[in-house]
Amino acid sequence: MILSVCPNPSVDTYAWLSSLEFGVANRISKQQEFAGGKGVHVAMALNEFGAKTDLLGNWAGHSGKWIREFCDDLGVQSFGPELEGANRKCYTFLSENESLHHTEMLEPGPALKKDQYHAFIENFSEQLDSANLAVLSGSWPKKTPETAYAEMITIAEEKGKKVILDCSGKQLTNALQQGFFGLHLNEHEAKELCGKDDPLEAMQELNKKVDLVALTRGKEGLYLSYLGKVVHANVVLKKVVSTVGSGDCLTAGVAYGVSKGFSVEEIARHGVAFGAANCLREDLGMLYRSDVEELLPKVSIKELSYA
Where are the beta strands (DSSP E) in 22-101? Predict the structure, then answer.
């Protein structure tokens, strides 16, 4: 079982606007809502592809209840403490106006009290006993210690469990101080951490702390370093409907490959196919197994080497 962890779930909302003007009423002509948050996207992708996964999150108010029910309807069981307030909403605006199209607005979400944080960590420790791998993804609610992910990684190491992390900022830098199994990050995060534009140079630096590095560069695809190998994987899509959640689905594909004991090449292939499948439909942060299966043989794999 893969434990998917989402400390800061959200309701992801597609909102259609013809234009956006300040100081006047702007009417949304249509909207669609989906369960969101990076770890929620990971759980939904794994579940759709037939992998057993449970979801650990912090749940608040009506929106938290709605997210859990959305996941439950898909067959994803959720756990975690209930907070005051409400889980955040994340809006993606769609418009014929290019300057507005795919503009995102993210609410802050609830705060996490000390006792609720400890409850979350205890839940993680308990649920980890049934898992062989944990995927920790995304931001945290306000007032969370900046060492939260580092603490969870320590617990996982004590239990002999692998962790794949996808986050940024202080949570990531603190986690990297002690090292862990797997990391997914994009080229901008890699440059911020390592000061290097070249993906291979950044990965070589990160491999000092992390066994598996999955570095994504948008249309240029995935660079994956693991077990002494470095590969580049990519697939060309004729049409991209939405990229929201594609990185999270890619993380899910990598986690799926690791959990199955796949080769480095096949881990990369599944990561790219999962991420690309998410781009094919309007469903935010979601993929369809049929799309993944169609894309898998189309993913190109090239072995690279450090200079």
Answer: 30-36, 53-57, 59-60, 77-79, 82-83, 88-94
Minimal CA–CA distance to 31: which of 48, 11, 45? 11
> DSSP H helical segments within 220-306, as ranges?
246-259, 264-278, 289-295
Q: Which of 55, 53, 62 is nearest to 11 (CA)?
A: 62
Sheet holding 30-36, edge to edge: 30-36, 10-16, 88-94, 103-106
Helices and strands per DSSP (H, E), number in the chain: 10, 16
Three-point CA angle 221, 179, 231, nearest 5°: 25
Q: Is 100 exposed, middle or buried (0-12, 13-18, 19+ CB in 10 A)?
A: middle
Would you state the structure tokens that stand for residue 7, as one six-digit string?
A: 């400390």
pTM for the structure as a whole = 0.94
Rg (CA), the chain: 19
SS3 assignment, position 296: helix
Give the number of other Cβ atoms within 10 Å of residue 38's Cβ: 27
> Along the chain (307 residues), what's the average pLDDT of each consecutive run of 10 residues?
97 87 89 94 97 97 97 96 94 77 83 96 97 97 96 97 97 95 95 90 94 94 96 94 90 98 98 96 87 97 87
CA nearest neighbour of 136 among 34, 29, 223, 255: 255
Place of tokens 């909403």: 89
Contact (CB, 8 A) for 84 and 141: no
